[in-house]
Amino acid sequence: MSPRRFPLTRWLQKTIYIQFTHDWIKVVCVEDQRTLEDIPIIARNDRGHVIAFGAQAQPLGIDSPQAVVNPFTHPRTCIGDFDAAEATLRAFVRAVLPRSWVKPAMIMHPLRSYEGGLTQVEIRALSDLLLNLGAKQTYVWVGRPLTDAELRQLQFPVSEGALHSRDDPLAAL
Fold first, then answer.
1. What is the mean pLDDT of each run of 10 residues along the chain (173 residues)?
2. Does the pTM exceed 0.70?
3. H-helix or E-strand spanning residue 50
């Protein structure tokens, strides 16, 4: 009996699953189950560099010149501050997936219900955030939480939600 062979691309594939609300974020590297759950805030210094994120950033906002921001708090949309959202996601993703030359597939899953659903602008913003973080493919999923098996195979139960996807335009070059 010969040993099982897996395609090299499957072995190198990384998948990041990001679930979030305005007061909670969970980032998972699907292949090795590294997970980070926290509050989605960052503290930035006067130059705009992130100096802390999650619960560690919360105390820095009291009597401190650092700007503490939660980019996902807005009454009408899922992102209130695009640049802060990118910095927040970058900090959380790097915590579970250190820098690598492998471009991951990334799934963004907003868990809060928005009246009328997500707009095309919000879907594009979420997808652009992931592309800016270096995603090879981006998926914006609105529906029930996905299982580990669905995430590993990038299978989305479209009968139970809505899927919007985009590939990195530079990946084909």
1. 49 88 96 95 88 87 71 91 95 88 92 84 95 95 94 93 77 48
2. yes
3. strand 50-53
